[in-house]
Fold these 3 entries.
Entry 1:
Amino acid sequence: MSWTTADLCDAHPDTVTVAAPLFRDFGGVTAFAGPVQTVRVFEDNTLVRQQLEQPGEGRVLVVDGGGSLRRALLGDKLAALAIDHGWVGVVIHGCIRDSAVIATLSLGVKALHANPRKSYKSGAGEVAVTLQFAGLRLDAGNYLYADKDGIVVAPHALTD
C-alpha cells in the first residue's frame, strides 16, 4: 500500500470527502481501496448478496443500510462470496455478523457494529444509486480509500 487516508487528505484537500468516524474495522484487511458500487437497503441483504455474486473486479461495495443496528447485512458466507468474486472491501452503514470469522478473511470490512440477528430476505432496495450518510455523498464509480484512520471518497482514483 503506497497511500494512507491521512496522506490523501493532505495531498487532495479539495478533492476528498471524509466519512464521520463512525465505522469499525471488522475484516482481516484494514486498508483497501477501489471503485465504488452502491446499494441501498433496510434490514434486507438480498441485494447485497446479488451484488457480491457479480464480478467485483477490485471494487468496494458500499451499502447504505439506513444505519440500522437491528439486523446484520453481511455475515461470513457473504464475506467469503465477496472474496471469491474479486471484491476488495465492503462498507456497511449498518451491522455485520460472524465478526470473529470475518476478522480472519482477506477482505476489508467496515461497519457500524456487529449484531447476530440475520436480515430479512424480501429483495427490497436499490442498486447503483447515490448514497448519503456519515457526511459522505457516494455514487457508483467514485473511488473509496479506507484504512485504520477512516474512509475517504474521491470522484476518481488518486493513486496508481
Entry 2:
Amino acid sequence: MIKFDVNMILSLAAACLGFFALLAVLVMSFSMRRWRARCLAVETSVAAMRREIEVLASISLRTGRRVKRIEQEYSGVADRVGLVELRGAAASFDEAIDSARRGTDPARLTQQFGLSRVEADLVTRLHGRRKTA
C-alpha cells in the first residue's frame, strides 16, 4: 500500500499544476499565432483600403474640378434659355428685323427682344439701314 504523506501530496499537486501551466502556455502560444496572423491580414486589408480610398479621393477631386469648370462654362445657359423662352420663337426675330430696318441699334435690339449681342449685331448687319457715305 502506498503511503501518502504531505510531501508526496504537495509534489503531486505541483506536478499537476506544472502540467496545466505548460498546457496553458501551449494553448496561449497557438492562440497568439492565430491572432498575429489575423492582425497581419487586417493590416494588409487596411493598407489596401487606404490605397483605394486615396485613389477614390483623387478621382473625386478631379470630378469636382470638372463639375465646377462645367458649371462656370455653362452658367449663362439658364439665363439664355429664359431669354429664348421669353422672346418666343421666330416672331421676336421678325420684330427685331423690322425694328432694325427702321434703324434701331444692336444694343436696343438686345434690350427690346432679348437677343444676344451677337444676334443683335447680325440682325443689324443683315437687315439694318445701310449707311450711305
Entry 3:
Amino acid sequence: MPATLSYPGVYIEEIPSGVRTITGVATSITAFIGRAPRGPVDAATRIQSYSDYERGFGGLSALSPMSYAIQQYFQHGGSDAYVIRVHNAAATAELSLPTSAAALVLTAASPGKWGNALRASVNFEATKDPTTLYTLAVQELVSPGSSTVIRSETFLNLSSDPASARYVTTVLAQESALVRVKGTAPTARPTATILNSDDPTDATKYVPRRPAAATVRTSPTIK
C-alpha cells in the first residue's frame, strides 16, 4: 500500500511484481549413464551412497566402467547421484512354475544374466488357508546351479485370485526386488513343494517335491 506522507523525507514503496525470486539449486548432483549388471533400465534412479548402487545395480563389474566411476564419485565426497542403466538387448530370465492349467511364469525384475541364478519354489502348508493360498520363496544364488544363496525373499499367503489383497501379481510388483509375474497369472496355484523346516520364513529350506517340474530355469543369451 502507498506510504502515508506525513513529513518531508525519502519514502520507499514496493510495487507488486509477477517476477519470482530464483531459488538456489544443488550443483553437486551427478548423473551417470552406462552399463550395469542389473537394475532398472532407461530410467533415472536416485542413489545417495555406493551401497545404494550395489543393492540396486550389482556393484563393480569389469564390463561396466560406470560402476568404477560411481565408486570413485562417492569415495571422493559425492553424496547424491542419478543412475541411468542402458543395455545392449539383454534378455530377461524366466522361471516357470507349473500349475494344473497354464504355468505361472516369473521374470527377473530386470534384464541381465544375473537372473539365470534365480530359483523359486512354493508350498501350501505355511499359509492361513492351505486349500486356496500358497507361499512363494525366491532365491538369488551366486551362480546358476550353486547352493550359495546371496539374497532371498519369502511371500506368505499368496492368492491366484485377482480380487484378493494378496494377489500374486500385485504383491510381487510392490514387494519383490527379484521377480515379477509375466503376463496374467493363472487362476490355478503352482505345484506344491515340501517345506523342510519348522520356520516358514526360512526360504533356504524350501525343496521341490518333484525337482524336475517344480522349478525350471531358462538360460537366455545375454549380450
